[in-house]
Amino acid sequence: RLISFLVSEEAKWITGQVIHSNGGYS
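== 3-ketoacyl-ACP reductase ==
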């Protein structure tokens, strides 16, 4: 469960970075 939690948080961070690098495109 801890692994899945960390993966989820990392996925959110990566998604945020992608959106930011794309100028807010979603």
